[in-house]
């Protein structure tokens, strides 16, 4: 069963809660929003008297288009997944979150209302769709990440990416064994959104250096034998648009500007790292040494994973684009530009 080519299906006959969760566990389904956490275990982790399902369709990753395509072409599967998740955890409420001003809102509201799901528009900021930020926003606070614990599941809230929920609907419909035999995933590449088997080699989709996992992912020198299912983070694969050093500097500047600015790593660490990477790209002496000192001290100290992702991406760029990094650091200029 493919997500993007199936039209409306017969009504979903959801099995009893225990059977459904066991099937999801057996399916091996993992979250498709970047974390990759086993969905069955997440369903089991939800506690609390009042329980809510939050379908995250905000797609905060700037290069990702998959969730928008899914909500436009197969919203019925997302709503079926929300129904299945509500049944699995005993939720009394369900919310579909999308970014403010999304053209999808008008199209989604009638179906959502008919299925007992509220559509909520979330501010267009990179960290606003992080799960704790969504929970805080829905509770009346700012769309900013909050320190865990308690985790959203410990507050009775299941937050799942819309693609994860669409796959959950498939598991509920065909069972774990059939799902494993034909599991697919949605990927965003420089040529658009594709639905491919999770066993697809990344090298069949992209060539050369690639940023795998979006802005919080890692640069890879080449796809090699890595499969889409093994790739890190949300399935977004971006090729360098020019020089890898300058591309990384631009991404870091964006990430620094999009932070919640509520803890030290985001307020001070990311702007400093972004400035150092920009200085490295411009051949400023000492920038590379400062980066090597700063990167290790930022990780693991933020209220959310935003600074960790930025550091991971920056560190991978220093390794993958080592020749260009050396050329920039020594003032020799960009090797990518000289050989282009």
UniProtKB/TrEMBL annotation:
Transmembrane spans: none
Domain (NADH-ubiquinone oxidoreductase 51kDa subunit FMN-binding): residue spans on this chain: 26-168
Required cofactor(s): [4Fe-4S] cluster; FMN
BP term (GO), one: cellular respiration
Keywords: 4Fe-4S, Flavoprotein, FMN, Iron, Iron-sulfur, Metal-binding
GO molecular function, one term: metal ion binding
Pfam families linked: Complex1_51K, NADH_4Fe-4S
Superkingdom field: Bacteria
Boundaries of every NADH-ubiquinone oxidoreductase 51kDa subunit iron-sulphur binding domain copy: 250-328
Similarity comment: Belongs to the complex I 51 kDa subunit family.
Record-linked PANTHER family: NADH DEHYDROGENASE [UBIQUINONE] FLAVOPROTEIN 1, MITOCHONDRIAL, NADH-UBIQUINONE OXIDOREDUCTASE FLAVOPROTEIN 1 NDUFV1
Protein name (database record): Proton-conducting membrane transporter
Organism: Umezawaea endophytica
Source taxonomy: Bacteria, Bacillati, Actinomycetota, Actinomycetes, Pseudonocardiales
């Amino acid at each position: 069963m493919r997500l993007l080519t199936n039209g409306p299906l017969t009504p979903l006959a959801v099995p009893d809660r225990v059977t459904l969760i066991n099937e999801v566990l057996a399916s091996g389904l993992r979250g498709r929003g970047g974390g990759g956490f086993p969905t069955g275990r997440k369903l089991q982790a939800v506690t609390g008297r009042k329980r809510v399902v939050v379908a995250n369709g905000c797609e905060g990753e700037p290069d990702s288009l998959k969730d928008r395509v899914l909500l436009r072409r197969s919203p019925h599967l997302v709503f079926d997944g929300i129904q299945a998740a509500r049944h699995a955890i005993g939720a009394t409420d369900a919310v579909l979150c999308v970014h403010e001003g999304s053209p999808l809102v008008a199209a989604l509201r009638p179906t959502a209302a008919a299925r007992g799901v509220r559509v909520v528009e979330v501010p267009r900021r990179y960290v606003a769709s992080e799960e704790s930020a969504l929970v805080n926003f829905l509770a009346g606070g700012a769309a900013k990440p909050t320190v865990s614990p308690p985790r959203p599941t410990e507050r009775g809230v299941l937050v799942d990416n819309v693609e994860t929920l669409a796959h959950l609907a498939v598991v509920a419909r065909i069972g774990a064994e059939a799902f494993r035999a034909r599991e697919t995933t949605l990927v965003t590449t420089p040529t658009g959104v594709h639905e491919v088997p999770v066993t697809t080699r990344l090298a069949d989709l992209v060539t050369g250096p690639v940023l795998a996992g979006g802005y919080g992912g890692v640069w890879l020198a080449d796809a090699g034998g890595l499969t889409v299912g093994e790739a890190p983070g949300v399935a977004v694969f971006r090729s360098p648009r020019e020089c890898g050093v300058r591309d990384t500097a631009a991404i870091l500047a964006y990430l620094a500007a999009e932070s919640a600015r509520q803890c030290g790593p985001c307020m001070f660490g990311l702007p400093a790292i972004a400035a150092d990477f920009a200085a490295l790209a411009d051949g400023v002496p000492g920038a590379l040494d400062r980066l090597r000192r700063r990167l290790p001290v930022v990780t693991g100290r933020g209220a959310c994973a935003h600074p960790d992702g930025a550091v991971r991406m920056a560190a991978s760029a220093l390794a993958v684009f080592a020749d260009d990094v050396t050329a920039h650091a020594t003032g020799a200029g960009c090797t990518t530009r000289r050989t282009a």
